[in-house]
Amino acid sequence: MMELVFATNNLHKLEEVQAVVGDQFRILTLADIGCADEIPETGDTFEANASQKSGYLYDKYQRDCFSDDSGLEVIALNNEPGVYSARYSGTRDMEKNIDLLLQRLGDHTDRRARFRTVISLRVGGAEYFFEGIVEGDIGFERAGDGGFGYDPLFTPRGRSQTFAQMSAAEKNAISHRSIAVSKLAEFLKTTY
Predict the structure, then answer these.
(1) Is 99 part of the annotated catalytic residue set?
(2) How far apart, in whole angstroms, are the C-alpha atoms of residue 159 and residue 143?
(3) Is 139:162 a contact under the CB 8 Å cutoff?
(4) Whole-number mean pLDDT of the chain?
(5) For the chain, which terminal residue's Cβ has fewer other Cβ atoms within 10 angstroms, N or C?
(6) Is the pLDDT at 147 greater than 90, yes or no?
(7) % of the chain at pLDDT higher than 90
(8) What is the pLDDT, as a whole number, of residue 65?
(9) How far apart are CA 188 and CA 192, in angstroms?
(10) Which H helix or E strand runs over 182?
């Protein structure tokens, strides 16, 4: 069974990824390989951040790995919060991040947004990218208590529930991360 290190200790992300790749690949976290480093993430695009993280891991541990960078892009806010989604308010407090987003959007009628994930895979020194996008809209208030991050605000296009109102299985079937991870898994299955 092929082992891949996922550059995260976020159990929500790990669960989403493992649900998509199934048991054909063994996904290890940073904790599993003893990595407690603060991995650099200083890029100004999702691609740059994902590449920086996977490159750091591959260079230091010489293990096949992948990393992702994901975020919310709100059209009316010139694609903010984007790469700063996790620390939009200057902290990693998601309640404060959500409050700031709602404040900046105010009564704006254009609520279009998209969640984007970019994955950088490093295998044998080569790098490959996979992207997942889900289009939707930002609500005027939180709805639901599942998921994480901006899930209580985001309703995918063609759906009536926010990500936070969906079951994990429903969300995983259509999420930006699952789209990107499905592309990653398909590549791995056909290549390795």
Answers:
(1) no
(2) 13
(3) yes
(4) 94
(5) N
(6) no
(7) 80
(8) 97
(9) 5
(10) helix 176-191
User: Are residues 155 and 139 in contact, defined by beta-carbon separation less than 8 angstroms?
Assistant: yes
Q: State the Cα–Cα distance between residues 40 and 53, nearest whole angstrom.
A: 6
**Structure token pair of residue 182:** 């499905």
Catalytic one of 69, 99, 137, 151: 69
pLDDT digits (tens, 9 = 90+) for 111-136: 999 999 999 999 998 999 999 999 99
Residue with tokens 């891991």: 57
What's the CA gap between 151 and 158, in Å, rounded? 16
* Confidence check: pLDDT of 169 > 90: no
The two three-digit tokens of residue 75, written as one number = 């059209």
Distance CA 118, CA 141 (A): 27
d(CA 109, CA 36): 43
Give me the domains of the chain, ranges plus CATH numbers: 2-191 (3.90.950.10)
